[in-house]
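WP5 quarterly update. Target: Aspartate aminotransferase family protein. Source organism: Actinoplanes sandaracinus. Length: 431 aa.
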Amino acid sequence: MSRQADLLARESRHLAPGASEEAALGKRVFVEGRGATLRDADGAEYLDFAAGTLTQSLGHCHPEVVARLTEQATKLWNVHDFATADRAVLCELLAELLPEHLTTLAFFSTGAEVVEAALRTVQAVAEPGRNRVGALRHGFHGKTQGARMLVHWDIGDQSFAGNSVLGYAPYCYRCPLELTYPSCDVKCATLVRRHIAEKPNVSALFFEPVLGAAGVIVPPPGYWEQIEAACRDNGVLLVADEVLTGGGRAGTFLASEAIGVTPDLVTLAKGMASGFPFAVLAGRDEVLRHPRAGSAGSTASTFAANPLGIAAAHATLSVVSRDDLIGRVRHLGAMMDARLLEMHERHPRLGDVRGIGLLHGLEFVRDRHSRRPAPEIARRVYLAALDAGLRTAIGGHIIRLAPPFIIDEAELLHGLDVLDRAITEAEEAAA
Ligand SMILES: Cc1ncc(COP(=O)(O)O)c(C=O)c1O
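Structure tokens (predicted):
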């Protein structure tokens, strides 16, 4: 029995079910990561086009992050939310990287935790009577109960509608109104706009500027203009959940900047600290310093802003900024886009390819006419790519690609060649 098979068999006697689809299907035991490459317990290597879980913008074990974490590990790990030596420099660096109206910050440990903090904030500052929050269909915001109020899919029937109302997402490939862009006049946005104007009890709209977990849904021009105007006109706060996109992945520090929306609050996590649990809530002064927002302890928790997380975030963001890695994301993202569009022309089961920066979603379908989702093809592609040394991220019939920003061009093109062959293999097997 291989070392991996032995380890997986032993742990399976104890672990509860409920692993991600990619881990359950992939059956690998990873033991090491360097740059864009992972190694498993039997010695096989993989290019990591899922960048950890979109966390490894600098790849695995970036030497500067390792050095800072190692140094910090010998000094101090947790003093609740007392200030530590690096917290001020991290605040200053974030203030430089974020759009200039987002000057107030709070630190947390995970994506769901920071989304909960944003929910608490909007509920605290809301005028009386504004007791509902808005969200978009297909949005994903985490698995805690408050976040699940905003998410109506993902983990089976466990969503909890709570006091949220949902609007249409800009999902052109599967338009719920059965219209086509641009002749649709972005009707989905018009309906969201009307909904916002007609519902005086909504305090905030939570949204992913690019919907990541649902398969990298990128809004078309015209979508956000209408919705943002409606929120402004009706006193509804805009809360951009950039847990997945924040930190440069869209080719701008925030994806909101790329799509032209100006949020009042932003949540960031995955791209902040090279895989160390660390999350940021950034907002306008008037929201985060509102007299009702900052009650004692509202930004503190056991692991929030621990010194190791701060060190990892400061080291990560310093490299992103110093090495202009966001410019690199735009350059590599354009290469990736061109190669994927070319694949789209040749592979009939690849129904749609879309993306922004170094973040792409591939939808597999039974055929292009019906567009019926084909999770069986996506699984075959995922496994064929993994066996050939390429790790991607799978969810249902969608495969997402999000390589580290530091990947070199040859690695990127090699990974895309592997993917191309994996799609051919999956299509032939399904024929
Ligand atoms: C947009 C978005 N928000 C929130 C979350 C939840 O983050 P976490 O898994 O760290 O709780 C995720 C996770 O993928 C996400 O993509």
